[in-house]
Write a structure and sequence with these properties.
Elements (H helix, E strand, L loop, with lengths): L4 H28 L10 H55 L6 H22 L2 E2 L2 E2 L31 E4 L2 E6 L2 E4 L21 E4 L12 E5 L2 E4 L10 H16 L3 H5 L2 H47 L3 H25 L4 H5 L1
Antiparallel strand pairs: 1-2, 3-4, 3-6, 4-5, 7-8
Helix pairs in contact: 1-7, 2-3, 2-6, 3-4
């Protein structure tokens, strides 16, 4: 086959252009730090990279969820610790006042402190995180406790305003439709429901409608794929009408009791409330431990996913530099060889 000058020239130019393309490729890799800048350069790696990036973003979102859960639960735990401390102080005061060596003035002083502790517990029930009420279930925009509606005075205890809540002799009632109904019992089930009968106002605690409105739905966050966990404590277990009703009756008893025996009767109720608080605290602690283990797992998964994504996309700089230098040498050799192969033309003789 006859090899013409033009065939030699075209082949030489193709090789030189190929070397320029290779040099451009490795220069781009060094500039961007990536093996490819377009999916068409390596479709398989590009497809895998999309999957790895999605996995990394997913893990990062789970980590943000875990951080939010930590904040929410740590705040709940601290609030419950403060409730526990307040109840412990009330128990201490009650135990002291139950001693008949205390006179009426000392008991009134203890009652004042108990009143302040009750107000403090009400405030704890309205604890907020990121402007959200943490003890009101999924209704985080509305406060669960309205202090102004506690221990109200009604003109006629047997016919208070509709919606009034009554705590009397250990039972919670709601006044609705012209009569009292035991709260939480179907009004049509007369066999189950109780009525307060004749009311002794000294033993009754009235709450205006809406004094306590706690949503009991769980606030859930996704800890990992397919795994949701409630991060809130049920406020009704701690801040219910019955709990505050008993505390208000304790305060009254401190102010009016003639003997320590009447005051001492409240110790069992305080112990029951402390047990409920401790139970909720234990539940939160168990969930916090699980969140910490999940967080450690997410940290390890993020490291692994990031490493795999880097192996798939990131360039090996040492190798890229070697390849760039190698192709620059090849280009120089091609240019030199091309200059030698090309036959002299008339122009060369005219110089």
């Amino acid at each position: 086959m006859r090899v013409t000058q033009s065939m030699i020239a075209n082949q030489t130019l193709r090789h030189i252009q190929s070397n320029y393309n290779n040099i451009s490729k490795y220069q781009n890799q060094l500039n961007t730090g990536k093996k490819f800048s377009r999916a068409s350069e390596d479709p398989l790696s590009a497809t895998s990279g999309m999957h790895y990036r999605t996995q990394v973003r997913e893990i990062e979102q789970f980590q943000r969820n875990l951080s939010s859960a930590h904040t929410w639960m740590e705040t709940s735990d601290q609030a419950l610790y403060d409730v526990n401390t307040s109840l412990q102080r009330m128990r201490e005061l009650t135990s002291q006042a139950a001693n008949d060596t205390y006179d009426s003035e000392q008991r009134k002083a203890a009652a004042e402190e108990i009143g302040q502790l009750i107000d403090h517990i009400k405030d704890l029930g309205n604890t907020k995180v990121n402007n959200k009420y943490i003890f009101n279930g999924t209704d985080t925009e509305n406060q669960p406790i309205d202090k102004s509606k506690f221990d109200i005075t009604v003109e006629n205890p047997n016919e208070p305003p509709d919606g009034t809540m009554l705590y009397y002799e250990g039972v919670l009632y709601e006044y609705t439709g012209g009569s009292y109904q035991e709260y939480g019992i179907d009004p049509e089930d007369e066999a189950e429901g109780r009525t307060p009968g004749e009311i002794d106002v000294n033993k009754a605690v009235f709450f205006e409608e809406g004094a306590i409105s706690i949503n009991e739905d769980d606030v859930e966050l996704q800890m990992m794929k397919g795994v949701n966990m409630p991060i809130n404590a049920n406020g009704s277990d701690i801040f219910g009408y019955e709990a505050f009703g008993e505390l208000i009756l304790l305060e009254r008893s401190m102010k009016s009791a003639d003997s320590g025996t009447e005051i001492g009767e409240h110790l069992d109720v305080l112990d029951q409330q402390l047990d409920r608080v401790l139970s909720v605290e234990a539940n939160i602690g168990a969930r916090q431990n699980r969140i910490m283990m999940t967080e450690n797992r997410m940290d390890q998964q993020l490291i692994t996913a990031t490493r795999i994504m880097s192996d798939n996309e990131d360039v090996d700089f040492a190798e890229a530099i070697i390849q760039l230098v190698s192709h620059e040498s090849i280009l120089n050799a091609s240019l030199s060889a091309g200059a030698r192969i090309m036959q002299p033309s008339l122009i060369d003789f005219l110089r």
